[in-house]
Specification:
Oligomer: single chain
CATH architecture of the largest domain: 6 Propeller
Shape: elongated
Structural class: mainly beta
CATH class of the largest domain: Mainly Beta
Number of strands: 50
Radius of gyration: 28 Å
CATH superfamily of the largest domain: TolB, C-terminal domain
Largest sheet: 4 strands, antiparallel
Number of domains: 3
Number of helices: 1
Length: about 625
């Protein structure tokens, strides 16, 4: 056994020495008469703290990964990093020393895993390394914390071929902010049953005297998502959507000088302005313009214009994009076909402010507008144009998505945007909102992966010192109380949208970029049976909205069957002529999807119908070529 100790002669807190003990039964131990490894010299990087965490014996050589630093206290100058030492007998140890570093604090030894660069999630402390050998080297799980926010410990992952040169994972931190605790420290990792099993300690920052033990699992050899810059040169991009041809449509906020615009990012990654001259104003220190874009069922583009004094502000703008080819001269505000004011209605309901921020289509293709100032969702009925309160009481409501039988609604929360204070709500078709996931921070958008219907959430950033911190945005996958951190370190991500193949596109408000995320793990193994990872069995017949919509030339239609039934799904043109039968067979209980290929058909509105016993449901879809 190797253990950390602080002798009676040491008057400052922290572990100063590493001891050694042996036992024949694991219960009764005999200590070595003196420490086997101690802190560094006065000017060394580990001059105040040293603690062991992992020891591995390979052939006749012991390898130890320890953590050390120049202080444990709260001052910004006190850092922790991870070192390595080797021994032939487990008693006489030699710290790793890079011969190329001869100046203080690395003159006598060097850390093998250093703290991150300024602004990264682990730029203050890296510690508590849990190391396992692999066929090609080693893998490490470690704790880390951020300097600028004095963030709680989160867990990161790194790999190495020799145990000395380590590469941190691009998806770090891999474990952050469980709902029952905000500080995760080191523990133990084991590999068995084709999974990693991690036990770690965790406690709330407000109750540090009551630590708990956490448990997490991960598949061995998972597919790691890849993030790349897909487009750049945009001005404060925010809302984003896709069309049937694979193009991206992005709302740019502008600079506050009435220069907000909508741009198209084509599949060759080129940016083309579509509509320019939209209102762009500064409110509460934030630039607000065209906050979201979304395609209506008829192919018209809906633009959510945020808070402002311009007659076009606080409204839904309708523009016809048909006939426009990327590269054409951009349209102007004179090409706007209709303006539907939302702000006046919100204020009339008693709201102190209004800031329409997102829109989606719901039942009967009605519009559902999330208004961050209204703290809720306003419904616009398609047939009558009547506005009504759908739900209210969600602190700074943001992203909204419709699944076919319910909505998910994100919340940013108000100033000072507390860590762990944001929630995602599940809203039923009557507008009743219940908390689906809490313990989140500054949620800016939500989206559904079309491949497996899983829910994703986007964290805008962490608020500290009077502002949101750069590179503190995150992407989460959420399922029934489990929050998986896919990425941390995004720079103010403001909107996201999936394409039909499950690739995710995220706007970076600060960097003026669109990021593409590929390789996201899904819960679908059979393209015809899309039961989720919990083997969820539906309680009702449901015909979901096709995705993508609009589409060209193919789209996917999902449906749920609560009991064995003969299922028929047909597609009709606008005149009611049946043009395709997609399904006509007995189906057992489950969730399914089928693909519709419209190659050879003309652009326009089509209908698809699910018939199962006495159940019949119809939906519309739009083919845009």
């Amino acid at each position: 056994m190797w253990y950390g100790a602080n002798g009676a002669n040491n008057t400052t807190p922290g572990v100063k020495d590493i001891g050694y003990a042996t036992s024949v039964d694991g219960k009764i131990w005999s200590k070595h008469f003196e420490p086997v490894l101690g802190i560094g010299g006065l000017d060394d990087w580990d001059n105040s703290i040293i603690a062991p965490h992992t020891v591995i014996k390979e052939d006749s050589l012991y390898k130890m990964w320890f953590w050390g630093g120049n202080g444990w206290g709260p001052t910004a100058e006190q850092f922790m990093q991870i070192g390595m030492a080797t021994s032939t007998d487990g008693i006489n140890w030699v710290k790793y020393d890079d011969p190329s570093t001869t100046a203080s604090p690395f003159a006598n030894s060097d850390p093998v895993l250093k703290r991150g660069a300024a602004g990264e999630w682990d730029d203050r402390w890296v510690n508590m390394p849990m190391v396992l050998p692999t066929e090609t080297g080693y893998e490490m799980w470690y704790g880390g914390t951020k300097l600028s926010t004095n963030n709680p410990w989160w867990l990161g992952y790194a790999t190495s071929t020799d145990g000395i040169l380590w590469t941190k994972s691009g998806t770090n931190p891999i474990l952050a902010n469980p709902t029952w605790g905000t500080w995760q420290g080191g523990g133990t990792v084991l590999k068995f049953d084709e999974e990693y099993h991690l036990w770690y300690y965790c406690f709330h920052t407000t109750a540090q005297a009551t630590p708990r033990i956490g448990y997490a699992t991960s598949l061995i050899d998972p597919i790691i998502p890849i993030v790349e810059v897909y487009a750049s040169g945009l001005t404060k991009p925010m809302g984003i959507t896709t069309d049937g041809a694979g193009n991206l449509w992005v709302g740019e906020q502008g600079t506050g000088n009435d220069n907000s615009q909508i741009s198209i990012v084509t599949t060759n990654k080129q940016v083309h302005p579509f509509l320019t001259g939209l209102p762009s104003e500064t409110h509460h220190g934030d630039i607000i313009g065209a906050e979201h874009v979304y395609f209506d069922i008829d192919g018209k583009l809906l633009i959510v214009q945020g808070e402002g004094s311009d007659p076009l502000s606080e409204s839904i703008l309708v523009v016809d994009p048909s006939g426009f080819t990327p590269g054409d001269p951009p349209l102007s505000t004179g090409d706007i076909e209709a303006v539907y004011n939302i702000g006046d209605f919100a204020i009339a309901q008693g709201a102190q402010s209004t800031n329409p921020i997102r829109i989606t289509l719901g039942p009967n293709d009605d519009w559902y507008i999330s208004d961050a100032g209204f703290n809720g969702v306003i419904k616009r009925e398609r047939s009558s144009g009547i506005l009504s309160v759908f739900t209210q009481g969600v602190a700074v409501s943001t992203g909204i998505v419709f699944t076919g039988d319910k909505f998910y609604l994100g919340s940013l929360t108000g100033f000072p945007f507390p860590t762990g204070g944001a929630k995602i709500y599940e809203v039923d078709l009557s507008g009743n909102a219940t908390v689906y996931q809490d313990g989140l921070t500054a949620i800016m958008d939500v989206a559904i992966n079309p491949i497996d219907s899983s829910l994703f959430a986007l964290q805008y950033g962490e608020f500290s010192g009077g502002g949101f911190q750069s590179n503190s945005g995150a992407l989460f996958k959420i399922n029934n109380g489990t929050v998986d951190t896919l990425f941390y370190g995004l720079n103010f991500p403001a909107g996201m949208a999936f394409n039909s193949t499950g690739d995710l596109f995220i706007t970076s408000f600060a960097d003026g970029e669109v990021l593409k995320v590929t390789g996201i793990i899904t819960d679908v193994n059979d393209e015809n049976d899309v039961d989720d990872e919990n083997n969820y069995k539906p309680d009702n017949f449901v015909l979901y909205q096709n995705y993508p919509n609009p589409f060209n030339p193919s789209t996917k239609i999902k449906y749920s069957i609560p009991q064995s039934s003969n299922v028929v799904i047909k597609v009709f043109d606008i005149l009611g002529n049946a043009i395709a039968t997609l399904v006509n067979e007995e189906k057992s209980i489950g969730n399914y999807e089928v693909q519709f290929d419209a190659t050879g058909l003309s652009s326009g509105v089509y209908f698809y119908t699910l018939t199962a016993g006495n159940f019949v449901e119809n939906r519309k879809m739009l083919l845009m070529k």
